[in-house]
Amino acid sequence: MIIAESVQGQLNIIGVGSDRSRGMNRGIVVDIDQVATSIQNAVHQAEQKANVSITNVYAGIPADMLSIEPCQGMIAVSDESKEITDQDVQNVAAAALIRNLPPEREIVDLVPDEFIVDGFDGIKDPRGMIGVRLEMHGIVFTSPKTVIHNIKKSIAKAGLNLKNLVVNPLALGKVALTDGEQDFGTILIDLGGGQSTAAVIHDHKLKFTQVDQEGGEYITKDISIVLNTSFENAEKLKRDYGDADVQAASDDEEFPVDIVGQNDSVMVSEKYLAEIIEARLEQILTRLGKSLAAVNAFDLPGGVVLTGGVTALPNIAKFAAELYHRGVKIYIPDQMGLRHPSFSQAFGLVTYVSQLSEVDVLVHSPISSASADYSQTMAQANAAKTTSYQTVAQPQQTVVEDQDPTPKTPQPEPKPKPEKKKKKRSEGFKRFLNNFFE
């Protein structure tokens, strides 16, 4: 939870709160009550630091089974003077949202690309102009109703009013990528605790997303199983001694590990711990890399940007660069109190919302109205008994049709790593997976 204020275009962070994501599994809400409690705890911390009371919030929605589609709408200008007003912008956005959606899907967001007034295109804000016909071209994002409902219900149960949902990769790209990287095209990978998300941003638009249902928690579970230690202790070992690259870890440096069922600790080397971490990390990045290669994302000049809590592991950029054979860098927020990659997504959300223009707000208003009605209904029913909804999302890739200018011919997968390093990684990888994992 981040509370910020915008003063003369400058965004100031005035409150930050965090709590363990209870009730979440692989980035999806599986227990509404627990998630609501976690939200309340994080909000309470942020309110105390900012010395303000929070009622209205914006929230991010993960890219699980996200659909990205182009859309367009057209209306006749309603005013007698033929001057385009706020209402006309809202009406043309509503016209663009008229579509036959499957019953299990719901519209999350609408991002305008351009407006066309009487055939003149490339217009960003048509208000005040004279015209007879107004058109809008944009991109609409849809997601499963179950995912959206569970997020909204959790926020309402926490006593908050949801203003809007924002697609996570769309917001993250605004802070993690430079203007040039968003323009020329860059791969953005968010290695979170519950899941990992790869996104391709080109021409300042979100073109492709791919979700892998494994994240930092899986690395922690691996450490816990292999070393026969508790999950809490495994998480501490990962943070204090973990390394993403076996070649960079030391075989001489050792640390004690508390073993379940034993009184005495066991000494483990940093290299042994790195082998456990690298095995799972290589799995995640390899799967994401195959999906990215299938849409020729590695042809884009922006390279790869990593963020998310897992990127706090030392040498992870070096490891990913060797795996993808591309330039890799890490994004960490530089604001006071947020200087850790785990805050990247929340900082992206508050920055994205603060930069919304009046036209963006007007275009989103048809969706906002539906969200406001939902929040009001949930607030009235807050005292009633609620039921937890469970959803298990499968990996899903999404791409905008006819939007990506890159060639459609298949691209070879990234070249294999040098044989010497690949052999060392493969031996450690196979040994752990054969012994401990299906």
TrEMBL record:
- UniProt keyword Transmembrane helix present: no
SMART domains from the entry?
A: FtsA
According to its UniProt entry, the protein's GO biological process terms are: FtsZ-dependent cytokinesis
Region named Disordered: 387-438
Compartment(s) where it occurs, according to its Swiss-Prot or TrEMBL record: Cell membrane
Q: Which family does it belong to?
A: Belongs to the FtsA/MreB family.
Protein's job: Cell division protein that is involved in the assembly of the Z ring. May serve as a membrane anchor for the Z ring.
Q: What's the protein called, per UniProt?
A: Cell division protein FtsA
Q: Which organism is it from?
A: Agrilactobacillus composti DSM 18527 = JCM 14202
